[in-house]
Design goal:
Layout: H1 3-19, H2 41-54, H3 68-79, H4 82-103, H5 112-124, H6 136-155, H7 158-164
Helix pairs in contact: 2-5, 2-6, 3-6, 4-6
């Protein structure tokens, strides 16, 4: 056997083994492949929490069980104009600090009823308060898109189409 080839293969194998731990192939932490949106995994988790607040799990599967946050992301990425996509990302990034600063509450809360009350309160804020609450318009746009696409995804889900309306 050629010693150069053996050393080369050993070096490639060692490099691959050293690089492998940085890869996370777990199914629960896979990022959604998007063309236009740049969303990190923490914000995807937040979006999943918000969609679960819109359609909670009960007697029927909720948004979390149906992975509706992925549907929301794909729809916003593919079907929404660029300026609305930017508002969506901006609203997603600003909602947690906004709720803490202007409403004095922590979001998301461990109790779904509190999350629902917080989101309802944010959506009920008047647009004229944008001057005193910067980012409100983006947050409300984000919540409106999220709510609409969550409901659309739920109504078109395999569960609804096969179990409820076969």
């Amino acid at each position: 056997m050629n010693r150069r080839a053996a050393l080369k293969q050993a070096a490639l194998l060692a490099g691959g083994i050293a690089w492998l731990p940085s890869c996370n192939f777990g199914p629960e932490r896979v990022a959604v492949a998007l063309d236009n949106l740049q969303i990190d995994l923490d914000h995807q988790d937040l979006l999943a929490n918000i969609t679960e607040t819109v359609i909670p799990t009960g007697k029927i599967p909720g948004a979390e069980a149906l992975d509706l946050y992925r549907f929301v992301l794909v729809m916003v990425d593919d079907c929404v104009p660029q300026e609305d996509q930017q508002a969506f990302v901006s609203g997603l990034q600003k909602i947690v600090p906004f709720v803490k600063e202007h409403l004095g509450k922590s979001f998301p809360d461990k109790e779904p009823q509190k999350n629902e009350a917080i989101l309802t309160e944010v959506l009920a804020l008047d647009e004229s308060q944008e001057a005193t609450m910067p980012g409100l318009e983006d947050i409300q746009s984000f919540l409106g898109l999220t709510k609409g696409y969550t409901i659309q995804g739920f109504m078109n889900s395999k569960y609804i189409m096969t179990e409820k309306f076969p």
